[in-house]
Amino acid sequence: MIKIIHGKIPAYISFSSRVSSHQPANPIIKPRMKTFFALIATLYLWSYTLQGQNNQTANPHVSQEANAPANPLSSEDTVPVGADQASTEAETKLEEGASLDSGNTAWMITATALVLLMTLPGLALFYGGLVQSKNVLSVLMHCFAIACIASIIWFAVGYSLSLTTGSEKSWIGGTDAFFLQHLSIEDLNGDHPETVWIMFQMTFAIITPALIVGAFVERIKFSAVMIFSGLWLLFVYCPVCYWVWGGGWLAEKGVIDFAGGIVVHATAGASALTLAYMLGRRKGFPRNLKPPHNPGMVMTGAAMLWVGWFGFNAGSAGAADTSAGMAMLVTHLSAATASLVWMIVEWRKTGKPGLVGIVTGTIAGLATITPASGSVGPLGAIVIGASAGFVCYYACSIVKEAMGVDDSLDVAAVHGVGGILGTLLVAFLGVEGTLGGLGLSVKETLADGTEVIYTSGEQFAVQAQGCLAAIALSIVATYLIVKIMSPFLGGIRVSEEDETKGLDQSAHGENGYSLN
């Protein structure tokens, strides 16, 4: 049977010492980078050997047994009441002999393109406009390079570790689909090609580490960005993705995360806060920082993110159906509401409504509705959007002023806090009949077939457990990755001279703007 499950700011982290900020470049960086990439070739040879020993994935549906990315409306343990039509239809089709549905396939291809648009160029432009003009190209480079390395890792091992059940473990997926050697052009995931499903999920693996870029802009070495992003994807994203969407232990508990409140936003937010603390503050933080160099670019990127988010959330239904339609509607309503609430709060506090402020509210609303977009109705989306605009606005002040952490572009406050907030609120706003809620997860099925649904309190406990587990892994793994790689790179932060000069010139030898 095919399962389609996909759809607190953490306490101040007190580390004994920060990573050295201004150490000279290490002459052995290049050999170390060669060693890093040689590891990929080793993994390939290893997977080739494993392939000869295990042919479980010869059946095109084996690796999809727990393909759970996009929908909490999926397994028998996690189907929200009144919203199980898509998964029921998928199971029925498989039992009868799965066949390709051209309509659903077309939608999933479209959704995949929309989610890739979120990173390239949406997120890149959004972040690029927020930094100083001497660092704009470095931000674009970070997002673009992460998209490339995440794609290769997803092809090599990420898809298999995140969304296949070959390991028969509750914390990580199997190795049968390494390098996609099991894949045939005829393989289906439900009623659309598995190739499309792999690509759709790849776009999630691309944008999640790219979100963390906002925490370390203007002061990190490019080599550190590449190595950190690759290792983070392997040791944080893949396990959490499997826990929630791949049939892991959180999926078995009935956690609701339609499109990534835990998998994407909680992990990125917690890691961003940790890395920003370890990296240290930018020069002039917090009183002498320059404003965003191009608010128009920020708005353009935010608008692309808003449009792309329809693929992110509605695509997580896995079909062009009623669930996708509702997900699109609630996504839009939450974004619009959060934008207005953020603008009003900022207007009252500063005396003027700002463009950067209103579009930041948009992102907060989108991040917060993400985990709940398959479980709430329109009125619930308004409540979530209003909560996001208010809570995330003040979370920005808490992180930067009260905690003193230079999370430069508010990744933890907007994505982390927003994703966690939405994940918790779904326990109350997703109750069937409450503001249009579609239902919570099934707790158990009795012998007579009667389904016992989680109460709000029980669902909240499951949701909170999922958030805490993802946050804990993200913090610990981020800390260890930085500590381990830092000595090989001579520190992960650029020199004070390079920071003053700007990363566009010092790291990439180019200028974002040339006036001739």
Give an account of the 3D structure.
The chain is mainly alpha-helical. The chain has helices at about 30-55, 85-95, 100-130, 135-165, 195-210, 215, 220-245, 250-255, 260-280, 295-315, 320-350, 355-370, 380-400, 410-430, 455-490, 495-500, 505-510; strands at about 190, 190-195, 440-445, 450-455. The strands form two sheets. The protein has a two-stranded antiparallel ribbon. α9 (about 260-280) packs parallel to α15 (about 455-490). The longest helix has about 35 residues, at about 455-490. The protein is globular. The relative contact order is 0.16. The model is unreliable at about 1-5, about 5-35 and about 40-95 (pLDDT under 50).
Compact description:
The chain has helices at residues 29-53, 85-96, 102-130, 136-163, 194-211, 213-216, 222-245, 249-253, 261-279, 295-314, 322-350, 355-369, 378-402, 411-429, 456-489, 496-501, 503-508, and strands at residues 188-189, 192-193, 442-445, 451-453.
Instruction: Report the top-level CATH class of the domain at 46-321 and 484-506.
Output: Mainly Alpha
Distance between the termini: 63 Å
CATH architecture of the domain at 46-321 and 484-506: Orthogonal Bundle
In CATH, the topology of the domain at 46-321 and 484-506 is named Ammonium transporter fold
User: Beta fraction of the residues?
Assistant: under 5%
**SSE string:** HHHHEEHHHHHHHHHHEEHHH
The structural class is: mainly alpha
Question: What is the helix tally?
Answer: 17
Low-confidence stretches: 1-5, 7-33, 42-96
For the report, how would you describe the main beta sheet? Answer: 2 strands, antiparallel
